[in-house]
Amino acid sequence: AIARLRVIVPLTILLIGILLYFNFASLADTLLTLSVIPMALIGGIFALLITGTPFSVSAAIGFIALFGISVMEGIILLSYYNQLVDAGIERVRALSEACQTRFRPVMMTCNAACVGLLPAAFSTAIGSQVQRPLALVVVGGILLAPSLILLVFPVLVGLFSRRERQAPAENTRVRFAE
């Protein structure tokens, strides 16, 4: 099973990367979005270490789910940033606005996943030894990932995003969230 995971996990990340490239049509944006995976990975590994739970197939599946959730958070931030820059907003202001405006959706996504898996993460009932590692990885990653994503990801976007501000078309306005 572990040998299969050595093939499946990289293929999963590659597939996520391909889908991101189709979405953004930019290698830089794809790599920026994939950069959130190590941020989530830290929380998942930390959760396994704290609880003394060994790495297993169930935990590996949890990491795959965690990668998907964390990439979704990156997409939420980066796509809004790109919309603002494309509308003519200066890059630093667009990055600040994207983080402020998308803070709530990122946190709600994380909280929903975390709260939904808390019972499985702390269960001691019969059969919990199978679901517990998966839930621990996702909950641990989700508890740490949003803070890292909201702190580190904007810095990475500011440093490596190649998107340039376009001259706004006449009568084009971008509404900022109140």
UniProtKB/TrEMBL annotation:
InterPro entries: Acrflvin-R (IPR001036). One of its GO terms (molecular function) is xenobiotic transmembrane transporter activity. The chain crosses the membrane at residues 6-24, 31-51, 57-81, 102-122, 134-160. Pfam families: ACR_tran (PF00873). One of its GO terms (cellular component) is plasma membrane. It comes from the Bacteria. Keywords: Membrane, Transmembrane, Transmembrane helix. Coiled coil: none annotated. PANTHER family: CATION EFFLUX SYSTEM PROTEIN, PTHR32063. This is Efflux RND transporter permease subunit. It comes from Candidatus Afipia apatlaquensis.
